[in-house]
Design a protein that fits this description.
Strand content: 15-25%
Shape: globular
Helix content: 10-25%
Number of strands: 14
Distance between the termini: 47 Å
Order of helices and strands: EEEEEEEEEEEHHHEEEH
Largest sheet: 6 strands, antiparallel
Mean pLDDT: 85
Low-confidence stretches: none
Radius of gyration: 20 Å
Amino acid sequence: MAMSVVYTNFCGMLVSETRGGVERDYVPDTLGSTAALVDSSQTITDRWEYWPYGEVSQRAGAHPTSFTFVGMLGYFKDILDKMLYVRARHVRPDLARWLTVDPLWPPMPAYEYVGSRPSEQTDPSGLIWFRRIDCSPSQIDDIKNALTLLCGKFNNPSSPYRVCLGALACKVAHPTAPPWGSQADLVDFICNSTSKSDPLLIRCDFGLSCRRKHASQLPGWANPLILCPSAFEPGQSLFCIMAHEISHKGGHSHKSPDCLKELGC
């Protein structure tokens, strides 16, 4: 009989497991990979080091866990130990590529993993959720990081942010699907259901729409969401700016209640 395991997460990040009644905490590195496991006495029982694309380069200890490379964000080691399941598809660390075509191909690369920058970028959904217009490579990285953080918080079912969103009515209908019932439905679509045919479109703009603003967006679901140059300046929270504009995508005005306080925005 297989041993039962209970995992604990906080704001979408894996923090601990209880296996056979024994609890261990996950110690992450800066990318979100499991660097170590510690027991209740804070003794390190296991350590990992990785090659850039996720192959284990050094291993100490024998404790079984499927959450290793970027495990804090949900990358799940397949039983064959050669693949990582990342919600929408599998990635092969030894081949440095996804095994199935990116849903946004073209124009996104068909099999390329995180823009060939595995030491800096992650893709917790297994998807790239947006198309972009006139965005520089550094802006694209900033947008992906902001979406990763937002969706990581949203995908924790018990997070205050998700609970708050579920209580707010969504005032717009999707052009090719029934109306969303709540703000949570809209954010779930952005984080988990966008596709090649229907992505969130983001434009990095220098035009008149950006005067005295960090960002703007067209009413309802109409694309694009426009991020102005000031949104990327030091001291600005692109994460909060995008969450604010996504709230507008759900039909909420500046006078409507929102859930940004649950994100610390």
